[in-house]
What we know:
Blueprint: E1 4-9, H1 16-31, E2 36-42, E3 49-50, E4 56-57, E5 61-62, E6 68-71, H2 81-88, H3 90-100, E7 104-108, H4 111-117, E8 125-126, H5 133-139, E9 142-143, E10 148-150, E11 154-157, H6 162-175, H7 177-186
Parallel strand pairs: 1-2, 1-6, 2-5, 6-7, 7-11, 8-9
Antiparallel strand pairs: 3-4, 10-11
Amino acid sequence: MVETTAEIVLFDGFDELDAIGPYEVFENAAQFGASLETSLVTLEETDLVTASHDLRVEPQGTLDEPDILIIPGGGWTTTGGARAAVENGVVPEAVNDCYTAGATVASVCTGAMILAEAGLLEGRPAATHPVAVDDLEAHAGRVVDERVVDDGDVLTAGGVTSGIDLALWLVEREFGADIATEVADLMVHERRGEVFG
Length: 197
């Protein structure tokens, strides 16, 4: 069986749970039989990335050509994090390249602003953290007040903890409801809300 690869992009100021929540879901799914390999990656080689709450994370490699790409948010109301990533333009360009190469792209929280800058949300329903709703409406499609929005090859999730629901939905969609349920039970996570889309 061909293994599905998932990569979660880290950048300075990313919100810890936006990345670590989905990572843990995917790693647990692999333990329950999902053919899934997950990595925390950066765009360029680096020893450590400092997240929004000062957690220092050692990435496992650099962005390759994943089947699933997860973009965290964080720092939209500051000068760092997702806002800096949007203004710099490098992360959105990499996201667009992965999407063009066939990756399913998903964002958590204000990571949706990076997807919008990459041109992936035009005309699509999308969710983001409440602090970025007005900005997302100005640059993308229709913002919906949902935890998880599935528009096929592009998915978005609302505020921070919704990244866990996003990852569980991706596990269910790609590997079946049984594995997703086992993971949710192991993590003692009560899934919230219906998936929009």
